[in-house]
Amino acid sequence: MHDKNFDQEKGGMKEFGGKVQHTAGDITGDEELQAKGSANETKGKAQNMFGKAKDAVGDAADKVKDALDPNSKDPSMDRNSR
C-alpha cells in the first residue's frame, strides 16, 4: 500500500515537470517540447485532482463508518456511561 497522498504528490511533480518542459520549449522555440510540457502539466493536474477526490471519498467513508459503529464513539462523550 502506498502513501495516502501519493496521487497528489506524484501529480504535483508531473505538473511541475510539465511546466519546466513547456518553459524550455518556449525558450528554445521547440513547439514539440512545448506541447509535451503542456500535456504533462495537464496530466499532473488531473492526477492531483484525482488524489484529492479519492482522499475526500475515503474521509467521507470513514466518517460514515464511525457514525454507524457504536464501538467507535468516545465513551467519555456518552451520557449513559457517567
Number of strands: 0
Distance between the termini: 41 Å
- The structural class is mainly alpha
Low-confidence stretches: none
> What is the mean predicted local confidence, pLDDT?
86
Helix content: over 70%
Radius of gyration: 22 Å
Q: What fraction of residues sit in β-strands?
A: under 5%
The number of helical segments is 2
Largest sheet: none
Describe this structure in words.
There is one protein chain. By secondary structure, this protein is an all-alpha fold. The chain has a domain of 53 residues. The mean pLDDT is 86.
Q: What does the secondary structure layout of this molecule look like, with pairings?
A:
Layout: H1 6-28, H2 31-68
Helix pairs in contact: 1-2
Give the tags.
82 residues; 2 helices; 74% helix; 0% strand; mainly alpha
Task: Give a quick summary of the entry.
With 82 residues, this protein is mostly helical. Helix content is 74%, strand content 0%.
